[in-house]
Here is the input.
Amino acid sequence: MKAKSLYVAATNQHVGKTTSTLGLVSVLKQQGINIGYCKPVGQRFLDLDNMRVDKDTLLFADLLGFEIVPSWHSPVILGPGATTSFIDDPSNFHYDKDIEAAAQYLTEHHEYVIYEGTGHPGVGSIVDLSNADVAKAVDAAVIMIVEGGIGNTIDRLNVSIALFREQRIPILGVIVNKVNPEKMEKIRDYVGRKLKQMGMPLLGCLPYDERLAHPMMRSINKAVSGSVIFNIDHMEGQVEDIMAGSLIDANRLKASKNILLVVGADRLNNAIHKVDLLSQVNDLPESPLAGIVATGEGTLDEQTTNYIEKHKVPTIRTHLDTFGSVIKISRIEVKINRHTPWKIKRAIELIRENVDLDRILDSMEIRKVQAK
Here is the structure.
């Protein structure tokens, strides 16, 4: 099987399409390949200078250094009302032609093209653009991303590849993501053997890295519809743990770092005084707080303000109560984006270290060169 284009699909959302695509694009770029990127169907989008583009496109524009042209790099956006409008009158839409035109341009101007899928394989079916429909339209072989496990992993994979099988789209191989490091060898063995029976190679297993699942303060602020009242220039910090103001204790502070303190604004002074005291008693060199979410009404005293400013702790005010804030924060969907360069670097490392890239390069007839 020789492929000039790759389509990265997954069994579901948040399984690792963007992580895997980042690694593949980075490797191809390192090989000196003129590589093109496209997100054919987007759902999460931004409006920039009268352009509507999928958010992931911005990430790859930075990585590859291309100027975004929506009709080439993000040809179809399924915004609010798009699906019902399509059902009302499909003749008003030419999504398939838009994607084919983008593929034609990218193929003519790049040696190889990587397309990033959307959600699970069936996403887009409502407008006749399932992932399989799109992969066929752009004439790409598919790499499937699945989440770590054995039974459930294979079950989901089998259902997910049915659409591609139906349209006779070649599956180049499978990458298993978010694997428990302690079960890596077992999963590699059993999943690998089953995939061989199914006629698909196991391209690699990526260990679960919990750091990639940590939200940024920027995301937390958005989740609670808050406003930043201190240290807005430190909103890129990551949160590894959440602590309510009523549950502050010395052992927790010593054992954790990058803690998000969620507390009623009327109790914030007492909470900060306690954190400061326990930090001093236990000789903690730095503040354990990655940020603060202050809920409801309340006034900060001078000691609290001094602590926040001294340790550069980003502080958010929200009208939500503490319970509501914690619920909102727990539902944050963490994605790699332009604001998390260290996550981008780590995602690329995971692909390089754990995926049989030579096999992928061989399948694309790419001559491997010495890394620069």
Observations:
- Confidence is low (pLDDT under 50) at residues 367-372.
- The chain has two domains: 5-212+336-363, 215-330.
- The longest strand covers residues 171-179.
